[in-house]
Amino acid sequence: MAQQALYRKWRPQTFEDLIGQEHVVRTLRNALRLGHLHHAYLLAGPRGTGKTTTARLLAKAVNCLAPMEERPCDRCEICQAVTAGRLMDLIEIDAASNTGVDDVRDLLERVNFQPAQARYKVYVIDEVHMLSNSAFNALLKTLEEPPPHVIFVLATTEVHKIPATVLSRCQRFEFRRIPVELLVARLRDIAAAEAIEAEPEALALIARTATGSVRDAISLLDQMAASGTATVTAEQVRLILGAERREVIHALVQAWFAGQPSTALKALNHAVDGGADPRQLARQLADTMRGLLLMRMGAEELWTELTAEERREFQGLAQQADPGRLATAARLFSEVASERGAGWQPQLPLELAFVESAVGADSNPGSASSVRNAAPSLAPLPAAPSQGVRPALPAARSPEGAGSVGAQPATAEPAAANPELQATASQVAAATQVTDVDSLVGDVISRWPDIKTQMRAVDLSLSALLNDARPLGRDEEGQLVLGFKHNFHRGKVNTPENRATLERLISKLLGNPGIPLRVRCELEKDWSGLTSSSMPLAQPAPSAAATAATLSPSAPPRSAEPTPPRLSQPPEDPLEGDPLIRRARAELGADPKIVE
Predict the structure, then answer these.
(1) Integer angstrom CA distances of residue 190 from 13, 199, 400
(2) How far, in Å, CA of 124 to CA of 41, rounded?
(3) pLDDT tens-digit series, residues 308-355
(4) Residue 436 structural domain
(5) DSSP for 221-277?
(6) Mean pLDDT value across residues 475-497
(7) CA distance 577 to 561
(8) CA-CA distance, 51 to 158, in Å (whole number)?
(9) CA nearest 445: which of 486, 473, 467, 468?
């Protein structure tokens, strides 16, 4: 016969055994003592915090044969029957596998029958949020006015999915995550009763890994005890769970504060090579950054996992940290911890998150914020006249000296004394800079397929979104305009994080040019209608001879103005002429201009 799991063997059988939910126990005991029992209770909270256990304790308490102050006693016939799972008047239903309206109707048909053994029939519906809307509607009337001998207890981990009509008919109890110190004490008691030798650090590590779930903590202790070693050590827990030493986490945090990502990356990879799980490392870093943020914001009492020495160490760090950077780091590490796919390089997401959070957005030349700060450099700036303009100045001011240029001084008067020259020189500099931006945009247009291919290695989901995009040109602020056919794809790419990722990749592929290139996302149909915010590609910068001829009153008139180059049109959509696409658009009304 298989041995019973520890979490089932050590399930609380009285209200005294239930830890961490004193607010629930106190309210239920008062209701029992005063005889104010409700016909429906809703128990909501994270997994493993005692919801189903409390439902069974309530079924014991309302039917217990002992005096009121001792209920549930766990000694009478009713309590023993509930513990053994043989009380006919306790009906437990798993809503995850009984979601339909027929299942609920079958339940309601039996509600009116009197209890067989006990005083009350107690229906416990676990994971009640899994019921369908029809099932909820069928349950409503009975839930509001059940027979006097029936009590409903609903349990859920996702209370937001339960209709308001059901919530209003129940007394609601919120279950909390169990603090680490209570979990450690519970594990210590179980280990002593089961003759399991365990190091205190190992129990603390198990409790932190369980994240407030008693069932998870006891199951992990059971797993460690089954490994065959005489003593459950912290090293064994780290090896099995992929957790890392607190010293490594502290070293990574110290490197983060010191702005030394190289030191942190070496420690991180050393830990991963030693068997640490990158997601577990990210989880611990996210928890530490959250705790530091709580300290920084004056809510350090919420960070309960620290020892006295660690609290003193982290208090000093928290006071010198920027709350915004701590929040960003906690968010980035939390995202890495919640990722399910390991990828070909498991530690890469953690490395990227660490560097991005440690260096900061403002220090990243490819980030969205730094590019925006650099945007004014794209505007035309006054500049001194180029060397090619100066020799023409004497001839422009002194027609009689045009034949003896060498006799004239080589210096030209200051630009401030000649506003016309200053304006022309500024136009030359601006046109040159705009031409550089146009050249970058042209490179992006020509290398767009390569950019999308490279993006697959950086961000697969962003690469998929870019299949709907194509570069259209630039706007008047020098931004690369990406045109999208669908607003959903445009909105996803247009987030600051995705734009920054795309800008960094473009900058890298273009050889990190001096002029940063920002990205602007527009719908193709909207962009084609813009006139005020769009402009054609600028003409090439005028040559020195052309500038001198413009300034010189004696210069002969030019015979004809050069034709400015036209902005090349984006390539045609390769699917535009596809018969199936055209038919779908015509029949579904996606594009009324296309008629089959």
Answers:
(1) 15, 13, 109
(2) 10
(3) 667 787 888 888 888 888 899 999 999 888 876 656 678 888 888 888
(4) 418-551
(5) HHHHHTT--SEE-HHHHHHHH----HHHHHHHHHHHHHT-HHHHHHHHHHHHHTT--
(6) 84
(7) 39
(8) 13
(9) 473
Report whether 94 contacts 124 (CB < 8 A).
no
Report the C-alpha gap between 289 and 329 in whole angstroms.
7
Q: Is residue 158 part of a domain?
A: yes
Kindly state whether residues 61 and 130 are assigned to the same domain: yes
* 466/499 Cα distance (integer angstroms): 11
Question: 321 and 231, same structural domain?
Answer: no
Provide the Cα torsion 524, 533, 493, 364; round to 10°: 150
- Same domain membership, residue 443 and residue 311: no
Q: State the greatest distance between any 2 C-alpha atoms of the chain, in Å, as a whole number.
A: 126
Domain boundary among 310, 329, 359: 359
Buried b or exposed e, range 139-168, using 16+ CB within 10 angstroms: beebbeebeebbbbbbbbbebeebeeebee
Q: In this structure, are 117 and 152 located in the same domain?
A: yes
- Asked if residue 72 has a cis previous peptide bond (ω within 30° of 0), the answer is yes
Same domain membership, residue 66 and residue 16: yes
Q: What phi and psi, each to the nearest 5 degrees, are found at residue 231?
A: -130, 135
- Shared domain check, 434 and 455: yes
Residues 220 and 268 in one domain: no
Q: How far apart are CA 550 and CA 552, in angstroms?
A: 6
Q: Is residue 236 part of a domain?
A: yes
In this structure, the answer to whether residues 207 and 269 fall within a common structural domain is: no
Classify residue 215: in a domain, yes or no.
Answer: yes
Name which of 176-180, 194-198, 262-266, 398-402 the model is least confident about: 398-402
Task: At 151, list the tokens.
Answer: 């009590």
In angstroms, the CA 47 to CA 45 distance is 7
For residues 201 and 179, give the distance between their C-alpha atoms in angstroms, rounded to a whole number.
16
How many angstroms separate the Cα of 381 from the Cα of each of 351, 355, 429, 435? 40, 35, 7, 14
Q: What CATH number does the domain containing 102 carry? A: 3.40.50.300
Q: Which residue has the higher pLDDT, 585 or 514?
A: 585
Closest Cα to residue 355, out of 437, 420, 269? 269
Residue 515: φ, ψ to 5°: -95, 115
- Asked if residue 581 is part of any domain, the answer here is no
The tokens describing 424, both together, are 């022309």
User: 246-258 and 278-296 are packed helices; what angle lies between their axes, rounded to 10 degrees?
Assistant: 60
Type of residue numbered 239 = L
For the chain, state the CA radius of gyration: 36
